[in-house]
Amino acid sequence: MQFNFLAILVAAIVPLIIGFIWYNPKVAGIAWMKASGMTEEKMKGSNVIMIFVLTIILSFLISFFMQFLTIHQFGASGMIGGDESHATPSYFAFMKEYGMVYRSFGHGALHGFLAVFFFVFPIFAINSMFERKSWKYVFINVTFWAITLMIMGGIICGWYAADGFNWVTQK
């Protein structure tokens, strides 16, 4: 299978966009600042450009991994080691029949939500308990990640279906 790097790049921008909206003082920004102990002075003393650059790089890593969570066909590709030159005719028949099954924005969003519920939330909650952060802090941040990963998953999973990109090599 080929990777859709355009979809991955577009999805990697989502955390910045949602972050600008979610952590705005008119949405959840003031509540987050109180719950996290963040102050205006701390925010002014940071290298914002470096934070944004690192955010894009780290978001790209998340976006790259999201395709494996949202696109079931990667499992079939993984069973042949990802190298279609070693695949049997049954693999190509399977991919021809099921290559675009469950390839939609909604399906990707569902898997984004599941990733948050079963992975992000527990990790965030455990860290926050040891850091003695409030549950309000946990839910503000986990809600951000739920919205973000649902959109990222939807973009990544639905992009192929939307543009009709044929990633199945016919023999």
UniProtKB/TrEMBL annotation:
It comes from Chryseobacterium oryctis. It comes from the Bacteria. Signal peptide: none annotated. InterPro entries: DUF1761. This is DUF1761 domain-containing protein. The chain crosses the membrane at residues 6-24, 45-69, 105-126, 138-162. Keywords: Membrane, Transmembrane, Transmembrane helix.
